[in-house]
Amino acid sequence: MIDPTSGEGWHGEAPAPPAAPYIPPAPRPEATSAVLDYLRALRAGLRIALLGRPAVQDLRLGPGQFWALLATSLLLACGWDWLAVDPPRRFDLWGLESTAIFFLPLLLVSTVLARLCGRPELLWRFAVLSVASDLLPDAVGNLVYWHVLPQSGGDKQHWYWLYYALMQCWSLAVSWRLLSLLDAPRSGVRRGLAAAAITALFAGLSYGMPYTGIWEKDYRAEFDRKRPPALIAEEVFSHQDELVNQALAGLAPTQPGRPSLYFVAYAPDGEQDVFRKEALYSTRLFAGRFGAAQRSLTLVNSRATVGQLPLATTVNLEQGLRAIGRKMNPQQDILFLYLTSHGSPDAELAVKLQGLSFKAFTAPRLAQILKDSGIRWKVLVVSACYSGSFIDSLRDERTLVITAARADRTSFGCSDDAEFTYFGRAYLQQALNQTSSFTEAFARARALVNQWETRDQFEHSEPQIAEGALIEAQLEQWRATLPEAVRGTTN
Question: Are 211 and 98 in contact (CB under 8 A)?
């Protein structure tokens, strides 16, 4: 025989070299293993949300993955809230608590499921995959709610309920898929009931539990940014004499044998711009329609006019009415005083302007100012809440007193974006543009205000009127001086 080791006469393959000894792979670092387990759980959850069938039995799922996914969910919620809120924004730590508290019922459900199925490992497997599979529906839900659904308008409620129903159907399908993958419970009927119960539980919690956004609009920062510089009281009040004198210098004197109407608008509350707008409109109305162009005085508390018009202070009103009283013929001329502000049941008007303080303005004080002015014939309109409380102090036989509300009722329409209060719109814009009779205008305005308050389901303010025995005859003499087109009444 030929020795195979000699190589002589050997025609087969050379023998393979001896195999290297098996060396097992080095174990993965614990941190790397945890990250991989987290990523696998996240991937499985996304596939479950799309109703896929990932292999979940070999996944390592425990409390570490649960807390990591909880942190992921909170970070995403923080991002969704940030996108949903217009700047400037403010971080609210309580919003994190409001979001995280929803995970406590999930742990409770997971514990109950594990106990009922007699499989302790279900606790963390169900909890982890539930959080992971909720990330996609939550993202889609936020995008639809804030960027697809109408955020205002009458149809918002209809669309909201449709969105809510579709999201719950998705949640039910995801719960069913997750329970099927975990084979818990093993019975299909019980599995369906469990999926429905879990979906109903979390739907009720999301609907009924109060939710605080992680980010919310920072109204204080927005207000501070828009807030104009503070008024310097010394500068403001040092210019009052100049502004009042300029306004009074243009007042025309009385016309012998021809009754004239002098008009004063008084808007002392500078916290809401509607009073300024109403005072300026009334001045234009009486100047253009009732011939008071050179017999008008406008006193307003507003930052917008603080450098152009005198402030609506008691001192300025007293000075103005005394000057008008000297210009007037007390036997024939008439004062129309229109006051618009917030009011109180104790016959007081609000006198305010941010950064400044003023003395109280009350009905008895106004009555004394009018008496001291020497003006006899007067039409006094008080557009304010509880303005009926002014009547007793102001009424006499030569005065017509009109108020926007009863002494115990509020009036409506006070807001910065409004052009008029309810009564101001009804009396000034509507009624007085149709008739020159102040009493007829009141009747029309009262009907309009009642109609608007009924529409808006407000308690009726019930505007009031107190007509002195002699004032209407004097007003009729004045109306006779107006152009025929103004004297006539349109229906």
Answer: yes
pLDDT computed for residue 453 by the predictor:
94
Dump pLDDT digits (tens) for 267-314: 999 988 999 999 999 999 999 999 999 999 999 999 889 889 999 999
Query: Using CA atoms, how far apart are residues 432 and 426, in angstroms rounded to an integer?
Result: 9
Calpha distance 385→225 (Å, rounded): 32
How many helices, marked H, and strands, marked E, lie in the chain? 18, 11
Q: Measuring CA to CA, how many Å separate 265 from each of 18, 171, 415, 456?
A: 112, 63, 19, 29
pTM over 0.70, yes/no: no
What 3-state class would DSSP assign to 467?
strand
Q: What angle do CA 428, 430, 434 make, to 5 degrees?
A: 100
∠ CA 159-164-170 to the nearest 5 degrees? Answer: 130
Give CA torsion, residues 290, 294, 298, 303, to 10 deg.
120
What distance in Å separates the CA atoms of residue 60 and residue 58, rounded to the nearest whole number?
6
Residues 405-448: tens digit of each pLDDT: 999 999 998 887 889 999 999 999 999 999 999 999 999 999 99
Taken in order of first residue, the domains within the chain and their CATH numbers are 31-220 (no CATH), 233-487 (3.40.50.1460)
The dihedral sign for the CA sequence 396, 397, 403, 405: positive
Count Cα atoms within 13 angstroms, Cβ side, for 286. Answer: 27
Give helix 103-117 / helix 122-147 axis angle, nearest 10°.
Answer: 140
